[in-house]
Amino acid sequence: MTMKVLMLALGIGSVASCTKEPLKNMTAEESRIYITDHDSSVNFSSFKTFSIVDTVSIIEDGQLSGKQLTAWDASILNAVAAEMTARGYIAVDRSQNPDLGVNVSRIYNTYNGVMSYPDYWGGYGGYYDPFYWGYPGSSYYFPERYSIYQITEGAASIDLLDLETASTTKQIRGVWNGLIRGTGVFDVNNAPSQVKALFDQSPYLKANQ
Question: Which of 54, 58, 41, 84 is nearest to 157 (CA)?
Fold first, then answer.
């Protein structure tokens, strides 16, 4: 067992050395990830009508911070409505008791970190011979210093809600979710293709004709 694993690892290494590194040659489109999930107990063909929100929710670090309607927001709302209509669902106003409700959100999560420069530079400086600068036998030294960095990740989320049973259960149940992450998610030109990719992964989203 161990020998087989070792041989496989060596084989993978040999192949990788002869090809381009995929992570270094990915386009922005190839970097995007599309994740869909749904309630498998739901018969989506039983729904006939839907209504979609008129603004996009902004969720920052788990908290709703507001709602907006930017050019990207309008584009993704239109794209979702078009896909739902193409699947046989009928768009109605929210006052007309739609079977499905559609929420769209932009999600941002911010992470903070600390970098210690003595630790960072300690290894790097040793790679270059001090003799190059005319000081053989010397060592590199960097003053102790710390920097705080911040990274913000963004994603787009689309939720389908079962409004048909909400009046009796007193709960608005989510029955489908699509999540988009990666480079260029919030580029207005990418919205239609991104929404299509999510729906293409969900062939069960189809109303009875």
Answer: 58
Which pair of tokens denotes residue 87?
């699947």
Angle at 38 (CA atoms; ends 36, 44), nearest 5 degrees = 120
d(CA 50, CA 106): 21
Tokens of residue 205, six digits:
């989203």
Tell me which H or E stretch contains 162.
strand 146-162
CATH architecture, domain 28-117+153-200:
2-Layer Sandwich (3.30)
Quick one: which of 180, 167, 189, 166 has its CA closest to 74? 189
Give the predicted TM-score (pTM) of the model.
Answer: 0.73
Q: What are phi and psi of 36, to 5 degrees?
A: -125, 150
Listing DSSP states for 137-155 in one string gives T--------EEEEEEEEEE
Distance between CA atoms of 19 and 3, rounded to whole angstroms? Answer: 25
pLDDT in tens, 17-71: 344 444 455 566 677 899 999 999 999 999 999 999 999 999 999 999 999 999 9
Close Cβ partners of 22 (under 8 Å, ≥ 6 residues apart): none
Name the DSSP letter for residue 64.
E
Ordered alpha helix ranges (H), the chain: 2-16, 28-31, 71-86, 117-125, 166-169, 191-200
Domain edges within the chain: 28-117+153-200
- Any idea what DSSP says for residue 183? T
